[in-house]
Amino acid sequence: MAQPNPAAELLIELYPQRPGSICLEADRAVYLRYDLEAAKENLEMAISQNYKDDASYFYNYASVLMLLNAPKNEIEEAVRQWRVHGIPVQNELDPRVIYKNVTFPLPLEEGATRLMTKSLDGRRVAIAPEMPATSTTMFAEIQDLLEPNPNYKTTNIRAPTRFTALSLAHDGSHIISANEGGVMTIINLETQEFLHRIINTSGDIFCAAVIPSRNIAITGDRSGLVKIWNLTDGNLLHTEPAANRSVSAIAVSPNESFLATGDWDGNVTVWEFNETNGIKKRVVHKDAHQGVITRLVFGPDNTTLASASRDHTARFFNLDGTLSGTTIVKHRAPIYGLDISPSGRQFVTAGEDQVVAVWSATDGSPIQKNVKPLPVYSALFTTKSNELMIVNEQQTLSYEIISSP
Question: What is the mean pLDDT of residues 6-15?
Answer without folding.
Answer: 58
